[in-house]
Please model this.
Amino acid sequence: MTERIRIALQKKGRLQQSCEQIFKNCGLSYNVGERQLYYSISEMPVDLLFVRDDDIPSLVSQGTCDFGIVGLNTFEEVRYEDKENFNASIFAKLGISKCRLSIAIPETMNFENLSDLNNLTIATTYPNIVKNFLNQNNIKANTVLMNGSVEISPSLKLADIIADIVSSGATLKQNNLKEIITILESEAVLINNNNINSEKREIANRLMVRINSALSVSSKKYVVLNAPKDKIDEIVKILPGSESPSMLPLANKDMVSIHAICTETMFWDVMEKLKELGASSIAVLPIEKMLN
Model:
């Protein structure tokens, strides 16, 4: 295989940190300096280009990069800007960096339906997505572009309402705003240039196998415990996310050792329930690598 793929990554921010950890878990570690913008990975035919997040969709669309990892919100904003000439698409959703683009209004403002948005001014960092939403719903409203501190615009009388990225909603509450409509559910996505050849696509497929495995491992634990034989069915039912646990005999013929790969959801509660059922020596261990 002689081809290499070039992937555009965000050079700063939480998504960059997440990508670095994911690549590390895939056995593709990279250690770049603060000013380094290009890096070649030796373990796979992959080159990384570190850029601003809002440049990633255009670089992939133009073919400067074959792939890119970016938030769906940023991808859609750039795509709506020039739909006719945009030449990139979503290769895979990654399920990380989840958030949503929502419309929020002052807490004192009444809202019953979408028609209440007519003739209002909306401050947003994503005017193209917002305009598309307004057009689809036949709403006549104005948009004001703001590149930061969007949530403060109603109190400064720069806009009536806002459309902004929401994670926990804490920032909205701090600025006396309430969320009323979700325009877009966003997450990190791997995007590709539409003209990549089959060899580059195959490299990306190999990379995605590693990425999916790395993401899967982050939410799973290896659980080992000793259990009474007469409680096996009850114990297996409450192990979160386990598929088919292994069972090994013990010196005590009334006990077995259960080994399972589980999700970590509410695991302290689960451990307490297991103990109530007679389980003992319960160990929850991290999984370094796993290939489904």
